[in-house]
Specification:
466 residues; TIM Barrel; Cyclin A, domain 1; binds cobalt (II) ion
Length: 466
């Protein structure tokens, strides 16, 4: 990228976020392989294709080894960078892991072919990304630190800009603004990018979802304010809860100083391939693909809203929906305004429901007690001390980096999974998904040992069924 160039770079999310958002992360490696050559040659800056929920889903629902997927994709993609999403100390799992696990995971992810590690923490507690970030730098990969965008009285332009400065100081090669709920509008996006640009000189990448219909507008004004990279999805897997369409963004910027350099003709075979995949997986698509007006009304993520509706229906209390929605800001304030992203969105939603149905602060789910004990990290603002006292009683909350409290886990896992391990990566799988791995690793082992003995010398089929 020549200095001073305003050329916008595109990260294609078709292989990760788009199918995670639209078809419950069910895309198979064999669905991806035939289109990779086209994707590699289209002129994308990066392909987001690993991490997030794909790791768990591959094993749990598709009987596929995520490590093998990474290697197969890497073998075919030579020009575009491969990008993954890492949830800080949570890696791609559902709890905080020990530092030795975090370091080993990053080593293996980069070692097997990841170029860019996008790393975020749900609470924006940068201590939760510190160890992963340090290891990404040690491996020589591109470190992208990512802020969870949210609206609250303590999430100001200044607070985001200061966070960006801290990220640059931690060695970030770029910064992503992650708007998981699609809440950012064009005016706010421009202001935010400008505020961050004043504090840092590394590239800014925009990541949003189309849920509210704002994302394309937000990208455009973000680009005009100086954002260099945007996340889009090839059109058959765009819009709705996914990203803005790649083709439209490329067309919108063409013949301007922001021209992406991508040719529409080169996107055509990719679009055609994903059209077939959309048809193949049409039963998994969400019923409504348009704008969700309730997300604009309540400014909470779509998943959180539908979870609350489902919870209340199950409890025969759907008439309390309005009360629960009004309780959300109360709970969020008491919890120090966590961004509403997994897992904090579920925690806030559940506590709001419990408050309405059982009386305010009369009972607390286990996760909320852990939260008030400091095990998720430091919230953006101090928690309400009285509510905290009700939640944890006389227990003493921790104030250190939560990862410090977890003893090393690698050695025991290596020992425990030894009977079925075919490669060092298996120990990581074992730690992150103990239940799934107990079923999956023996199968992987059986397949590998059969293949070695020459009994079953068959490679996985490459083309998806027509
Ligand atoms: Co996303």
């Amino acid at each position: 990228m020549p200095a001073g160039s305003k050329k916008v770079r595109i990260t294609e999310t078709g292989l990760r976020d788009a199918h995670q958002s639209l078809i419950a992360t069910r895309m198979r490696t064999s669905d991806m392989l035939p289109v990779l050559e086209y994707m590699d040659n289209a002129g994308y800056w990066a392909l987001e294709m690993w991490g997030g929920a794909t790791f768990d889903s591959a094993m749990r629902f598709l009987d596929e080894d995520p490590w093998e997927r990474l290697r197969l994709i890497r073998a075919k993609v030579k020009k575009a960078k491969l990008q993954m999403l890492l949830r800080g100390q949570n890696l791609v799992g559902y709890r905080h892991y020990a530092d030795d696990v975090v370091r080993e995971f990053v080593k293996k992810a980069v070692g097997n072919g990841i170029d860019i590690v996008r790393c975020f923490d749900a609470l924006n507690d940068l201590r939760n990304v510190e160890v992963a970030a340090d290891q990404v730098k040690k491996e020589g990969a591109h470190l992208q630190l990512c802020m969870s965008y949210t609206l609250s009285p303590v999430h100001t332009l200044d607070s985001f800009a200061n966070m960006a400065k801290q990220m640059q100081d931690m060695g970030a090669d770029s910064i992503a603004i992650k708007d998981m709920a699609g809440l950012i509008g064009p005016m706010d996006c421009a202001k935010l990018v400008k505020a961050i640009k004043e504090k840092v000189d590394i590239p800014i990448e925009l990541h949003s979802h189309y849920t509210t219909g704002l994302a394309s507008m937000a990208y455009l004004s973000g680009i005009e304010a100086g954002a260099e990279i945007v996340d889009t999805a090839i059109s058959p897997f765009a819009l709705g809860t996914s990203q803005p369409p790649t083709e439209s963004m490329v067309a919108a910027l063409a013949n301007s100083e922001y021209d992406t350099g991508i040719k529409m003709d080169d996107l055509l075979p990719i679009c055609n391939h994903f059209k077939k995949l959309r048809e193949k997986y049409k039963d998994l698509l969400p019923e409504i693909a348009g704008v969700d007006i309730n997300i604009l009304r309540y400014q909470i993520p779509g998943g959180m809203y539908s979870n609350m509706v489902n919870q209340l229906k199950e409890m025969n209390a759907i008439d309390k929906l309005e009360d629960v929605l009004n309780e959300v800001p109360v709970v969020r304030k008491a919890m120090g305004y966590p961004p509403l992203v997994t897992p904090s969105s579920q925690m806030v939603g559940t506590q709001a429901t419990v408050n309405v149905l059982r009386g305010r602060w009369k009972s607390f789910p286990k996760e909320i007690r852990q939260y008030f004990l400091g095990y998720y990290g430091q919230p953006p603002a101090p928690v309400d001390p009285e509510v905290q006292k009700l939640a944890i009683g006389n227990e003493e909350p921790i104030t250190c980096r939560p990862g410090e409290k977890i003893a090393p886990e690698m050695e025991k896992a290596r020992e425990d999974c030894k009977p079925w391990a075919t490669e060092p990566e298996d120990a990581l799988t074992w730690i992150m998904f103990p239940q799934v791995a107990k079923d999956f690793l023996p199968k992987k082992y059986a397949k590998a040992t059969k293949r070695d003995s020459g009994i079953q010398a068959q490679a996985a089929p490459e083309a998806y069924p027509a």
